[in-house]
Amino acid sequence: MADIKVNICGVELKNPVVTASGTFGSGREFSELTDLNGLGAVTVKGVSAVPWQGNPAPRIAEVYGGMLNSVGLQNPGVKYFIENDIPFLRQYDTKIIVNLCGHSVEEYVEAARLIRGADVDLLELNISCPNVSEGGMSFGTDPVIAEKTVREVKKVADKPLIVKLTPNVTDITEIAKAVESGGADALSLINTVTGMKIDIKKRQPVLQRKIGGMSGPAVKPIAVRMVYQVCNAVKLPVIGMGGISNAEDALEFIMVGATAVAIGTANFIDPDTGIKVAGGINKYLDENGFDSISEIRGIIK
Questions:
Q1: How many domains, the chain?
Q2: Total-model pTM
Q3: Has residue 128 been placed in a domain?
Q4: Is 129 a catalytic residue?
Q5: What pLDDT does residue 74 have?
Q6: Which residue of 36, 97, 160, 191 has the smallest Cβ count within 10 Å?
Q7: 9, 101, 129, 231: which one is catalytic?
Q8: CATH number, domain at 93?
């Protein structure tokens, strides 16, 4: 059987399949539906320094080829996460990636400070959050602000820092290079693509906040292209995501350079998707005579 272990910033994952933040909760809900032991890592929902209420409903909408969401990173805060979710996840043989969110640089730093010393493996910085001091613009759309945010968080972070990139920019490599300069240890991409859906009978947007983030199979070609560009622009390991539904999808990301892949929207359709993807990658390698996943990583030049 082929070796599908991967290494992200010194942390070894038994396989390259992780969950995408915001689609798997804290893992508790899905533990009744799938075996968390079969995943390389669980990336939990966004965690902030203090509890966030989230956005008003309706905040989820099905669209052709995926879904729109405007949940607003609702979560009970770092303290609750440390006391309740980490002990639960440590029952399983999987790594823990904590997604950190904030509305200001100070909030990001505070979340990273509060998680210091906690029994987790990796941190993921969600720079797609709205920047309240910059009129609501995402931290991840301005290379200067993105670099500053990463640099400040790195000063207090005690675990390797993955930075999650938004696709809603003209040149994603510019942002990738900026956060690499700021001290990022790894990157994950893509986050959701902004979209909108109208109820023509009511003649109004379906989502209460009008615009949301689109995920699902329709965004995969965009995600593969961006992962390819970023892997060729920086020297950091990359976790690729965006519309992955099966092993074939995941292999595309690995072949353009991703070290690992994250499953998001597909979890809502089939909670076993992550385990099936890991098994499918192994089967592909065996059937094609590869001894290790590293042999196919980045073969697309």
A1: 1
A2: 0.96
A3: yes
A4: yes
A5: 87
A6: 160
A7: 129
A8: 3.20.20.70
